[in-house]
Design a protein that fits this description.
The structure holds two protein chains of two kinds. In chain A, strand 15, helix 5 and strand 16 form a beta-alpha-beta unit. Chain A contains ten helices and 22 strands. By secondary structure, chain A is of the alpha/beta class. In chain A, helix 4 crosses helix 7. Chain A has three domains: about 70 residues; about 80 residues, Immunoglobulin-like; about 190 residues, Rossmann fold, CATH 3.40.50. Chain B has one domain: Rossmann fold, CATH 3.40.50.12140. Helix content of chain B is about 25%, strand content about 15%. Chain B has seven helices and nine strands. The radius of gyration of chain B is 16 Å and the shape is globular. The chains are: A alpha/beta, B alpha/beta. At the A-B interface, helix 4, strand 13, strand 14 and helix 6 of A face helix 7 of B.
Chain lengths: ~425, ~230
């Protein structure tokens, strides 16, 4: 006859065996059950294997926790899951920086590719192409690079994103037409543009009805010229043609007081103020244009964009006119910058003029096949577009539904139950 | 009013209206500038500026300053005048500052027009000026007579017009068929003449009326070229 304690001990041993058997059965069932998910399933660890599992057996709600913006393939996979009936939500274990990168041909004759990058400030960003590293931005933020040669795709990478872009287009760049009176501004404007590689056609007035011309001169339209630079009042005779050219997509630069020409009244970004003198001696300083005199832009139109200010007055403004762009540049003796500027005066003057013309130039794009296919210019924005905004992390839900945790609990329960049963029987002398 | 050149050989009339003062260009105005250099007789052709100014005003609509300017080659003021006329009879030796400035001037797009007032390829000016200019801006070579400077305003299909000093046998007794030049890209940085335009154009503008053909027309071409190319 067993004592009461002995009976309780045997009941406990039976109970431990039953628990072990049930846990083993549960483990066996979890191992061989068909992959049917239910409720909320949270991906942890290897995302790829999780996606494969979800592809076969999608859960009603699938959650991923990311530490960086996913690559386009993963993102498209998640998007496909969400479009196939499941609810895919995402969260991040750390803030993923918003970023964008774009590469496009600059409308300049030197064939450079302009790479524009924007990322949340603070995170270092490295810029590279397929041939290797190009630059590093220690604190991210906005940046613009001009690359003479680009090998394949351009990548902007940081800890939480890897953006990729490609210069997909080429451009057609036609000559620039320069109109002005014979003088140093005409000479050095033409020289600056030519030295930067622009093809320049010019009509320089020397005497009444006598012009010194160069390059192809014909009808002023977008099939002939990328831009027209009007340096002074000699452009008046062509003002109607130039205004029409601007409306059809051409780029026009009105220099100095040339915006006063009545024919430009409808396209000029603003009126012309009284001339202001440059700051004596400043032309060789770090801010050389403060040493130039000029006609400030007065009463800018509502759609004008003021691009450069000096002492409270606008010196450069621009506006769109139908399909074209018109820029008003107040400075009227920029040649002084080239001749009397600092050591880099000539180069800076050249670059400045080229950038002005490039900013307005009519440069039709021509698609080209670069062979780059994996373009991902805005990783975070594309993720939000694919899956919606991030859902805050829910650890409690994650713990509750974590499949591996349940497996470990069942396994531990089995081992503890069997060990308890075995130990109890050995202590009482049974086998 | 007159003065004597440093060599003491040539009495030089000074015309206050043309060389009397430093003058900086005002807005959009062309100012004819004469180079002043340490060595030699930079002021040997004082009537050339006023004569060319007269011609520019006579034939073109360019806003031109009624008086010329004198600018030191060693001065930063040189860069206010992208076309500078240099002449003389005597040996030319640039100082280091002048040489550096001339090089920078040419590199930035300025044009230096140099005329040998001796009209003598064995003369001191020619030999030393060629040497100095070569050191400063590079070697000079013959400018083709088809260059656009010969058609910039008036047409000179045969190249540089001859001067009376070439034709009457003075100097080296040669008629120089070409000018020399140093180029920057396709632009003339230094234009060098052995033809003695300094003497040819060195007269009062009023006396043009006595000429059958105005002999300063090529000077107009040089100025128009400099202002347009």
């Amino acid at each position: 006859m067993h004592s009461r304690a002995e009976r309780l001990r045997r009941i406990a041993e039976h109970g431990a065996r039953v628990v072990a058997m049930v846990a083993l059965a549960a483990l066996l069932w979890r191992a061989i059950r068909p992959p049917v998910a239910s409720g909320v399933d949270v991906a942890r660890g290897d995302l790829r294997s999780t996606l494969e599992r979800w592809t076969v057996a999608p859960a009603p709600e699938m959650r991923v926790t990311l530490d960086a913006a996913p690559d386009p393939r993963t993102r498209d996979w998640l998007r496909a899951l969400s479009r196939s009936g499941g609810l895919v939500r995402w969260s991040s274990s750390r803030p993923i920086a918003a970023a964008a990168v774009a590469a496009e041909p600059a409308a300049e004759p030197n064939g450079v590719t302009r790479v524009r990058l924007a990322s949340a400030a603070g995170e270092p960003v490295s810029v590279a192409d397929d041939a290797g590293a190009l630059d590093t931005l220690p604190r991210g933020g906005p940046a613009e690079l001009e690359l003479a040669v680009v090998a394949g795709a351009v990548h902007a990478s940081a800890a939480t994103f890897n953006a990729t872009t490609d210069a997909r287009d080429s451009i057609v760049l036609r000559p620039v037409l320069v109109l002005g009176a014979a003088g140093w501004d005409s000479k050095f404007t033409i020289a600056a543009l030519e030295e930067r590689g622009w093809r320049v056609a010019s009509r320089v007035r020397v005497a009444p009805n006598i012009d010194v011309t160069q390059g192809p001169l014909g009808t002023i339209d977008t099939s002939s010229y990328a831009a027209v630079v009007v340096l002074d009042s000699t452009g008046a005779s062509s003002s109607a043609e130039i205004a029409r050219y601007a409306r059809t997509g051409g780029g026009v630069i009105l220099v100095g007081s040339s915006a006063r020409i009545s024919g430009f009244g409808a396209i000029a970004p603003g009126k012309v103020s009284a001339r202001v003198a440059g700051v004596a001696g400043a032309i060789a300083s770090a801010a050389p244009r403060t040493g130039l005199g000029g006609f400030p832009v007065a009463s800018p139109g509502a759609d004008a964009v003021l691009l450069e200010w000096r002492d409270g007055v606008a010196m450069i403004a621009a506006r769109r006119v139908d399909a074209g762009r018109v820029m008003q540049v107040g400075y009227d003796e920029s040649w002084r910058w080239r001749m009397a500027g600092g050591d880099d005066g000539a180069a800076a003057h050249r670059e400045w003029w080229s950038h002005l013309v490039a900013a307005v130039a009519y440069a039709p794009l021509v698609p080209r096949n670069s062979g780059v296919t994996a373009v991902d210019e805005t990783p975070l924005a594309s993720l939000v577009d694919a899956l919606g905004p991030a859902t805050p992390t829910n650890d409690r839900l994650a713990r509750r539904t974590d499949g591996r945790r349940v497996t470990w609990i069942l396994f531990t329960l089995t081992v503890v139950s069997l060990l308890g049963d075995w130990t109890s029987r050995r202590l009482r002398g049974a086998r | 009013m007159s003065m004597t050149s440093r060599a003491g050989r040539f009495p030089i009339p000074i015309c206050p209206a043309s060389l009397g003062s430093r003058r900086f260009p005002t807005l959009g105005e062309f100012v004819f500038a004469t180079a002043q250099y340490e060595s030699g007789d930079w002021d040997s052709a004082p009537l050339v500026p006023s004569n060319l100014i007269d011609s520019v005003a006579r034939y073109t609509s360019l806003p031109v300053a009624p008086t010329g300017a004198i600018v030191s080659l060693a001065s930063d003021d040189l860069f206010r005048f992208p076309l500078v006329f240099l002449t003389g009879h005597l040996p030319v030796r640039f100082t280091d500052g002048e040489r550096a400035n001339v090089r920078r001037f040419a590199d930035r797009g300025g044009m230096l027009f140099v005329d040998d007032h001796n009209h003598d390829i064995d003369g001191a000016f020619h030999k030393t000026a060629i040497e100095e200019l070569s050191r400063a801006v590079g070697p000079l070579s013959q400018l083709p007579n088809t260059h656009s400077i010969y058609t910039a305003f008036f047409k000179f299909p045969d190249g540089p017009p001859n001067t009376s000093h070439e034709l009457n046998g003075w100097g080296d007794n040669l008629v120089h068929s070409h000018l020399l030049a140093t180029m920057r890209g396709d632009r003339i940085a230094v234009l060098y003449s052995n033809k003695d335009y300094s003497s040819e154009w060195g007269y009062h503008p009023d006396n043009k009326r006595f000429l059958a053909v105005d002999n300063t027309k090529f000077g107009v071409n040089i100025i128009v070229y400099a202002l347009t190319r």
